[in-house]
């Protein structure tokens, strides 16, 4: 059999299955889905692995229609929807007259994909847009289902907290599902003490700001996809000396990033300014380790040295890679524009001049900086001011439309609907109160040895994570007033456990909280939660789940109206 | 927290913003370099065959492993089923030696043990009891499953079965009452797939007015139908629905969106004309009107200029051939174009910059900025000068730049303006510090010297002497100032 892949799915699938495994199951060939005739392959079965998207159905229909009917043996078609079979798509295939060609139409419910030891994602890119723009809650249904699966594996989670409309929905669905599948009551000792469901729209601010952790910056600048990042090759010089300089590699360098790499696990969540010193320390340690070969005298010592070589080499190549990445990032973070942009962001977040037209934004528009950058800044200003004054909003809108094209009126409209860009209503700005109560802006941030989560944005403490932190201690009752200012209800539910499974906490044992971000989470927020997990007197460890790993750019992009490519 | 330019330096050094200032004494960069050197020097002792990183992709060719990793190849370990966890353990340090990760309850344990798809699969099977199949489907379905089509399921059961991915016949639900119960059940299940399926059924079997009326009181279902119609491009049905609901602004935007699908400019223009009367918000109406007017102008300009360019008689077009047509370009781009090719035209011409400025009420700042960039690109320094010169009613002339002279200098510099031209505008930069910076950066010696003279800063002036050429007029100037 052969598999035809929707390219988007290969990333997530790569995280759970390898080709060798598929081969064991007699997969002979794999292709990417594209229009035209399918490549020849001497196989009986062709299986399409696709997301339920109409545009993909068109391609599949094209593939099937062009299949040579006369060939022998005839090939059989099957279709596998990930994560859900879609009746809409099948309807579409029917209209194209190809539905009958498929012998099997099935679904592979891939709800939560593991990204790291403490991180799960549904990788549903449009979840935020669907929930807040189109009021389509299908992704919430999948989230609830994923949570049920998780409970089947790790035991019923006794406490559920949530904030926001979507959170409320997911909790309702979970309770309903539990009622409908009484068999799902299992006898597994619960791993999680608490589930915290958070709507992205409770905290629209955080993703808009530039992340300043090492991993966050890699994502901001190069984009991490399914734990892989593609980097410009120049800094990854040819390995052997003497060969260098002739042909520099032109292919982007692709690296996988996760905590299995010792060095990366250590630096990924640090503020970028604390990364350089770690790297140089590591370099010294490794140099010293290699020096030891001179002291190895006896055969036994030499043998021991050699046995350590593979590990040392791995560490060396890991260090080389991250030194190169750090250099690439430093080139950008030291640029004037990065600095100016950051200054404006930090002014907004600390509440300075959020109510008037900002000079830097105007300048950026005049110089036609990328539209997404402009939108990120304008939205940030709007969120930090609980909406812009009508005059300011109109001014920005006009400038954007005149400079980037009137058709972007559709995108601006989407942003308005999502609450990212809006006129201030009632003339009240709640943000200062929220900022002060939740201590979102910290003046004395320590980037090297942080004592507060605000280090991930060099001053700004992500609101979402602050909510998680305050929930653990002293509890949300202390911030009722602010919770009311944020959109959507906040709630608490309890799921009864059989007496035998109730936890008797040992003294000093940590509680485990699963935080589920509905609508996406950034790497900086993840870093902040990991920081809280590691705090010595924290008392809570966090596991993170989300619909999608995002940053400001990918997030805004998902909300932009898809415009036809320019006609030339 | 004052952020005035002058205070900036002190500010950044004294506060948390130090984040991204890199002083010289902060030798992080040199630390980085040092680590790089150390790493590089190690290469020759330990290098082995690790430069052939295995490239893998899912894009067609059979490849060894999907989650390759640098460590895998570097440590020489063969790829194991779970490449993510295997690598570093080969050496001396083990997984346990990793710095404490966020949780000791590592989820990876789950996926390590059970990353064979089939067993992972069975977990969700356990929950949903059926519907999900292995990625390698069995060949035939048992005949018995087809009985789904005829069974007499209640609305609730039907919805539940559909949620599990089974095909159910909906035709049995004949009365309006039954259909609405079915819809409500689907909505209660929150599964968009099922809701949409039921909606497709209702859309096919109910009269429009009835469907619309019933959806009006079922907001969730309504949203799904709107989304469905948008996806499938059933524009007319969608507009009817929105009109019925009195969502006029949405109707307008939805209709306006259609213009993106029209490739032919004439047709697009006609279409946009039709959009002007649509019930947009007041602010948006003026933008739509402008969009139409702009395209109308562009069509006229394009026809004219293409003709001019083809005829080959205009020197400007010969020397600077157009890179692309001006059709469908944003307003500011159009203004730039017109400042470039049609700068001197009378205001009556559609393609003249002043006409565009008036028609679209382009702010002064925007206009000057764009015109400046266009004229500087053509190195028409005279035009630049005229653009920045204003005359008051007494006839005195004065230089004025609504964008600030530092920006003027930036733009001119980017277009390689000669020092004499640059100097004139550097001199006009108001802020002394900025002026000195720009003047030094772009070697406008006269401005530097004059500024130090006005500041009576002998030390700096003396120091600057080594920056100018020996025996030059500038050196003489410094000397004469110093001796006074």
From TrEMBL, chain A:
Function, as annotated, reads: Plays a role in vesicle-mediated protein trafficking to lysosomal compartments including the endocytic membrane transport and autophagic pathways. Believed to act as a core component of the putative HOPS and CORVET endosomal tethering complexes which are proposed to be involved in the Rab5-to-Rab7 endosome conversion probably implicating MON1A/B, and via binding SNAREs and SNARE complexes to mediate tethering and docking events during SNARE-mediated membrane fusion.
Where primarily located? Answer: cytoplasm
Could you tell me the membrane topology recorded for this protein?
Peripheral membrane protein
Report the subcellular localization.
Answer: Cytoplasmic vesicle, Autophagosome; Cytoplasmic vesicle, Clathrin-coated vesicle; Early endosome; Late endosome membrane
One Pfam match, by short name?
Sec1
The GO annotation for biological process reads: protein transport; vesicle-mediated transport
Keyword annotations = Cytoplasmic vesicle, Endosome, Lysosome, Membrane, Protein transport, Transport
Q: Which organism is it from?
A: Thryothorus ludovicianus
State the InterPro entries in the record. Sec-1-like_dom1, Sec-1-like_dom3a, Sec1-like, Sec1-like_dom2, Sec1-like_sf, VPS33_dom3b
**Annotated protein name in UniProt:** Vacuolar protein sorting-associated protein 33A
Which Gene Ontology cellular-component terms appear in the entry?
autophagosome; clathrin-coated vesicle; early endosome; late endosome membrane; lysosomal membrane
Family statement: Belongs to the STXBP/unc-18/SEC1 family.
Automatic annotation (TrEMBL), chain B:
**Sorted UniProt keywords:** Cytoplasmic vesicle, Endosome
InterPro entries according to UniProt: Spe-39, Vps16_C_sf
Please give the chief subcellular localization of this protein. cytoplasm
- Any Gene Ontology biological process: intracellular protein transport
Q: What cellular component terms from Gene Ontology apply here?
A: early endosome; late endosome
Give the signal peptide as a residue range, or say none if absent.
none
**Places the protein is found:** Cytoplasmic vesicle; Early endosome; Late endosome
Q: What is this protein called?
A: Spermatogenesis-defective protein 39 homolog
């Amino acid at each position: 059999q052969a598999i035809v892949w929707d390219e988007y799915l290969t990333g997530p699938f790569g995280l759970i299955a390898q080709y060798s495994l598929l081969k064991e199951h007699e997969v002979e060939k794999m292709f990417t889905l594209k229009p035209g005739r399918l490549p020849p392959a001497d196989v009986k079965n062709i299986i399409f692995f696709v997301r339920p998207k109409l545009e993909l159905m068109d391609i599949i229909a094209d593939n099937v229609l062009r299949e040579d009917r006369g060939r022998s043996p005839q090939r059989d078609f099957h279709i596998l929807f990930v994560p859900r079979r879609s009746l809409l798509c099948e309807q579409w295939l029917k209209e194209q007259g190809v539905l009958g060609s498929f012998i099997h139409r099935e679904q592979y419910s891939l709800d939560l994909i593991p990204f790291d030891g403490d991180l799960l994602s549904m990788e549903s890119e449009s979840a935020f847009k669907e929930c807040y723009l189109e009021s389509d809650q299908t992704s919430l249904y999948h989230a609830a289902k994923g949570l049920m699966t998780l409970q089947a594996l790790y035991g019923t989670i006794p406490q559920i907290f949530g904030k926001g409309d979507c959170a409320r929905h997911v909790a309702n669905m979970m309770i309903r599902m539990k009622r409908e599948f009484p068999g799902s009551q299992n006898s597994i000792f619960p791993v999680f003490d608490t589930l915290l469901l958070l709507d992205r729209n409770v905290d629209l601010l955080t993703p808009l700001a530039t992340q300043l952790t090492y991993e966050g910056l890699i994502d901001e600048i190069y984009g991490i996809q399914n734990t892989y990042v593609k980097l410009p090759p120049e800094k990854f010089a040819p390995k052997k000396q003497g060969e260098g300089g002739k042909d520099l590699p032109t292919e982007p360098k692709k690296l996988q990033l996760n905590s299995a790499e010792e060095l990366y696990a250590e630096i990924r969540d640090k503020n970028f300014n604390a990364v350089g010193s770690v790297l140089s320390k590591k370099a010294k340690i490794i140099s010293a380790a290699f020096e030891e070969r001179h002291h190895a005298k006896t055969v036994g010592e030499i043998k021991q040295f050699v046995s350590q070589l593979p590990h040392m080499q791995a560490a060396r190549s890991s260090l080389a890679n991250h030194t190169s990445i750090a250099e690439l990032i430093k080139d950008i973070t030291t640029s004037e524009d990065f600095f100016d942009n950051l200054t404006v962001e930090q002014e907004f977040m600390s509440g300075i001049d959020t109510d008037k037209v900002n000079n830097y934004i105007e300048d950026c528009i005049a110089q036609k900086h990328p539209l997404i950058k402009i939108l990120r800044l304008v939205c940030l200003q709007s969120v930090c001011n609980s909406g812009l004054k009508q005059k300011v909003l109109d001014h920005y809108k006009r400038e954007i439309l005149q400079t980037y094209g009137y058709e972007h009126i559709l995108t601006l409209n989407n942003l308005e609907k999502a609450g990212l860009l809006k006129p201030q209503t009632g003339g009240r700005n709640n943000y200062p109160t929220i900022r002060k109560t939740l201590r979102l802006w910290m003046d004395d941030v320590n980037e090297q040895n942080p004592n507060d989560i605000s280090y991930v944005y060099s001053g700004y403490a992500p609101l979402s994570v602050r909510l998680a932190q305050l929930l653990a201690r002293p509890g949300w009752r202390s911030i009722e007033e602010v919770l009311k200012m944020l959109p959507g209800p906040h709630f608490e539910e309890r799921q009864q456990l059989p007496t035998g499974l109730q936890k008797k906490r040992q003294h000093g044992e940590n509680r485990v909280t699963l935080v589920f971000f509905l609508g996406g989470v950034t790497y900086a927020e993840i870093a902040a939660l990991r920081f809280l997990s590691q705090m010595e007197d924290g008392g809570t460890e966090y596991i993170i789940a989300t619909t999608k790993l995002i940053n400001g750019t990918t997030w805004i992009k998902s909300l932009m109206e898809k415009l036809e490519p320019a006609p030339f | 927290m004052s952020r005035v330019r002058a205070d900036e330096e002190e500010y950044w050094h004294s506060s948390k913003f130090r984040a991204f200032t890199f002083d010289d004494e902060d030798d992080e960069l040199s630390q980085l370099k040092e680590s790089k050197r150390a790493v590089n020097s190690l290469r020759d002792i330990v290098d082995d065959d690790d430069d052939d990183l295995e490239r893998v992709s899912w894009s067609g060719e059979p490849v060894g492993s999907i989650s390759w990793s640098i460590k895998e190849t570097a440590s020489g370990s063969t790829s194991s089923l779970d490449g993510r966890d295997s690598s570093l353990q080969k050496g001396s340090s083990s997984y346990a030696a990793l710095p404490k990760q966020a949780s000791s309850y590592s989820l990876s344990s789950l996926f390590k043990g059970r990353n064979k798809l089939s067993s992972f699969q069975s977990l969700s099977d356990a929950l949903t009891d059926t519907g999900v199949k292995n990625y390698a489907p069995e060949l035939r379905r048992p005949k018995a499953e087809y009985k789904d089509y005829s069974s007499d399921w209640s609305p609730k059961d039907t919805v539940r079965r559909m949620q599990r991915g089974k095909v159910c016949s909906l035709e049995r639900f004949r009365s309006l009452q039954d259909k609405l119960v079915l819809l409500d059940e689907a909505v209660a299940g929150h599964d968009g797939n099922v809701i949409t399926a039921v909606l497709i059924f209702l859309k096919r079997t109910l009269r429009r007015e009835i469907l619309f009326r019933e959806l009006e009181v079922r907001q969730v279902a309504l949203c799904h139908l709107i989304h469905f119609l948008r996806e499938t491009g059933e524009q007319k049905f969608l507009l009817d629905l929105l009109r019925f609901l009195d969502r006029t602004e949405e109707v307008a935007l939805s209709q306006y969106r259609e213009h993106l699908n029209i490739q032919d400019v004439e047709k697009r223009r006609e279409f946009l004309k039709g959009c002007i009367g649509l019930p947009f918000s007041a602010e948006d109406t003026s933008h739509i009107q402008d969009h139409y007017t702009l395209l109308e102008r562009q069509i006229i300009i394009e026809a004219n200029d293409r003709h001019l360019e083809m005829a080959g008689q205009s020197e400007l077009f010969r020397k600077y051939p157009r890179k692309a047509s001006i059709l469908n370009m944003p307003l500011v781009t159009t203004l730039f174009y017109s400042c470039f090719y049609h700068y001197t035209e009378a205001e009556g011409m559609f393609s003249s910059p002043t006409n565009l400025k008036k028609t679209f009420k382009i702010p002064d700042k925007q206009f000057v900025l764009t015109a400046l960039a266009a004229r500087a690109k053509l190195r028409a320094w005279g035009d630049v000068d005229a653009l920045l010169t204003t005359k008051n009613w007494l006839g005195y002339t004065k230089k004025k730049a609504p964008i600030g002279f530092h920006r003027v200098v930036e733009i001119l510099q980017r277009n390689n303006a000669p020092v004499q031209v640059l100097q004139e505008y550097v001199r006009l930069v108001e802020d002394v510090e900025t002026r000195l910076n720009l003047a030094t950066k772009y070697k406008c010696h006269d401005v530097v010297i004059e500024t130090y003279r006005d500041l009576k800063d002998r030390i700096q002036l003396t120091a600057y002497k080594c920056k100018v050429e020996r025996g030059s007029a500038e050196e003489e100037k410094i000397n004469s100032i110093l001796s006074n």
